[in-house]
Design a protein that fits this description.
Mean pLDDT: 78
Largest sheet: none
Order of helices and strands: HHHHHHHHHHHHHHHHHH
Number of strands: 0
Number of helices: 18
Shape: globular
Structural class: mainly alpha
Helix content: over 70%
Oligomer: single chain
Length: about 400
C-alpha cells in the first residue's frame, strides 16, 4: 500500500502545477489556462461519486487503479504532442477522471485490508507516503525541467503511473475483504446491512462536511498555481524550479500533517483537526498577497501543507467513521469529493480571470476569504458534529440518529 500511495501521488498531481507554466511558455494567458484546468476539475468532480459506487460494488478494485494509470500516461502524451486548446482540455479531463477514481479505489482497498478499526492509522500512513511521493516527484520534476525542459515533467508523470500499476498488481486480491472495503460488518450475506442511497443526503454531519470542504476548495484550489504564476511573472523565479519548490515545501509539511492528524484525531477528535485546517487558509491568502517573492514560498506553502496534510488524513477517515455499517462508504467518499470538487472546479477559472483582471494580490485575498464560510459552517453546526467526530461509530444507522439530534 505504501508503494502504491507513493507512486500514485505524482500520477495524480505531478502534471497540474507545471501545466500552467508549460502553457505560459507556449504563449497562453492565465484565463484560458484556468479554463482548461476547470474543465478537468469538473470531470473529476462528476466521476468521483460514480467511481465510489463502482468501488463499493466491484471485486476488481485493483483493476480500477490500473485503468487510471493508463489514463495518466495518455494525458501526458497528448499535452506533449500538441498545445491546441481542445486537446489540452481533453488531456486534463483524462487526468482528472483518473484522479477522481483512484481516491475511492485506494480508500476501498485500504479499508478492505485493515478494516474499520485500523483505517484511521493506515490512512494517515498512506497520506504521508502520498505526500512524500508528491515531494520527491516535484523535486525530480524541477531538476528534470531545469536540465531537459518542461516536457521531462510529463514523462516523469507517465513513469510514476506505470510504477503505480506495478505496485497495485503486487497486492494479493484475497487480502481485500469486499464487505469491509465497502463498510459492512465482516459477517453476513452479500448485501446484509446495506442501507439505501438516502443515507447520504439524510446525514447532517456528512452534508456539513461536504459543504465546508466545497467552500474551502473554492478558495484553495487555485492558490498554488496562481502563486507560482505570480512569482514567475514578477521575474522572481525560474519557472520549473520555482513551481517544484512550492510543491516540495508544501508536501514536506503535509507528510508531518498527515501523521499528526491521525494522532490528533484520536485525542481531540476530527472536529478540531478540520477546524485548524480551515483557519490556515485566510492567513495563507494574506501572506501570498504580501509576499510575491522567491522566499515567500516558505510561509505560504507551509500553511498549505498544514491545511492539506490535516484534511487528506482526516476527511477519508471521518467519512468512513460516519458511514461505517452502511455499505456505502466509498460512495460517500466519492460524494464528498464531488461536492468538494464543485469548489475546486470553479477555483482555477475564477482565480485565473480575477488575476488577469485585477492582479494577483487582490485575487489571493478574495480566494482566501471563502474559508471564512467553511469556518462558519464548522462552528455553527459544532453540536451535531462533535460527537460523531469524536467517537467510533460502530453501526452506520447511528448516522440517521445523529440527524435527529
Amino acid at each position: 500500500m505504501q508503494a502504491l500511495n507513493f507512486f500514485m501521488a505524482d500520477m495524480q498531481a505531478g502534471i497540474g502545477p507545471f501545466l500552467g507554466v508549460f502553457l505560459l511558455a507556449h504563449h497562453w494567458q492565465s484565463g484560458p489556462i484556468g479554463t482548461v484546468m476547470t474543465a478537468g476539475s469538473i470531470a473529476g468532480m462528476l466521476i468521483a461519486a460514480p467511481a465510489g459506487a463502482f468501488v463499493d460494488a466491484t471485486r476488481h478494485k485493483r483493476g480500477l487503479v490500473i485503468v487510471t494509470g493508463a489514463c495518466t500516461v495518455l494525458a501526458s502524451g497528448i499535452v506533449l504532442l500538441s498545445q491546441d486548446f481542445w486537446l489540452v482540455a481533453v488531456s486534463q479531463v483524462a487526468t482528472a477522471v483518473a484522479g477522481g477514481a483512484i481516491g475511492p479505489a485506494v480508500n476501498g482497498i485500504t479499508l478492505g485490508i485493515v478494516r474499520q478499526a485500523g483505517f484511521n492509522r493506515q490512512n494517515g500512513k498512506n497520506q504521508a507516503y502520498n505526500h512524500a511521493g508528491n515531494m520527491v516527484g516535484a523535486a525530480l520534476s524541477g531538476f528534470l525541467g531545469w536540465q531537459f525542459g518542461l516536457p521531462a515533467v510529463f514523462w516523469l508523470a507517465a513513469i510514476f503511473a506505470v510504477l503505480s500499476i506495478i505496485s497495485v498488481s503486487m497486492i494479493p486480491a484475497d487480502a481485500i475483504s469486499r464487505r469491509a472495503a465497502r463498510g459492512l460488518k465482516e459477517e453476513g450475506a452479500e448485501d446484509e446491512g446495506l442501507l439505501g442511497l438516502g443515507v447520504l443526503h439524510t446525514s447532517k454531519p456528512l452534508l456539513v462536511l461536504a459543504a465546508a470542504l466545497a467552500a474551502f476548495y473554492l478558495g484553495n484550489a487555485a492558490m498554488l498555481p496562481l502563486y507560482g504564476w505570480a512569482v514567475v511573472s514578477a521575474g522572481q523565479g525560474e519557472a520549473a524550479s520555482f513551481v517544484a519548490k512550492t510543491i516540495v515545501v508544501g508536501q514536506g509539511v503535509m507528510i508531518v500533517g498527515s501523521l499528526v492528524a491521525m494522532r490528533m484525531a484520536e485525542s481531540k477528535g476530527f472536529w478540531f483537526v478540520l477546524l485548524i485546517s480551515f483557519v490556515a487558509l485566510p492567513i495563507r491568502g494574506v501572506l501570498a498577497a504580501c509576499l510575491i517573492t522567491s522566499w515567500g514560498v516558505y510561509p505560504v506553502q507551509i500553511l498549505d501543507g498544514i491545511s492539506s496534510g490535516l484534511q487528506t488524513a482526516a476527511v477519508p477517515a471521518l467519512v468512513a467513521r460516519i458511514l461505517h455499517g452502511t455499505g456505502r462508504v466509498n460512495l460517500g467518499q466519492g460524494a464528498v469529493m464531488t461536492v468538494q470538487g464543485i469548489g475546486g472546479a470553479l477555483s482555477p477559472a475564477l482565480g485565473g480571470w480575477l488575476a488577469q483582471t485585477i492582479g494577483y494580490s487582490p485575487t489571493f485575498l478574495i480566494l482566501s476569504g471563502f474559508a471564512l464560510l467553511s469556518i462558519a459552517l464548522w462552528v455553527v453546526f459544532a453540536d451535531s458534529l462533535r460527537s460523531i467526530c469524536a467517537q467510533e461509530v460502530v453501526d452506520g444507522r447511528r448516522v440517521l440518529e445523529a440527524v435527529n439530534r
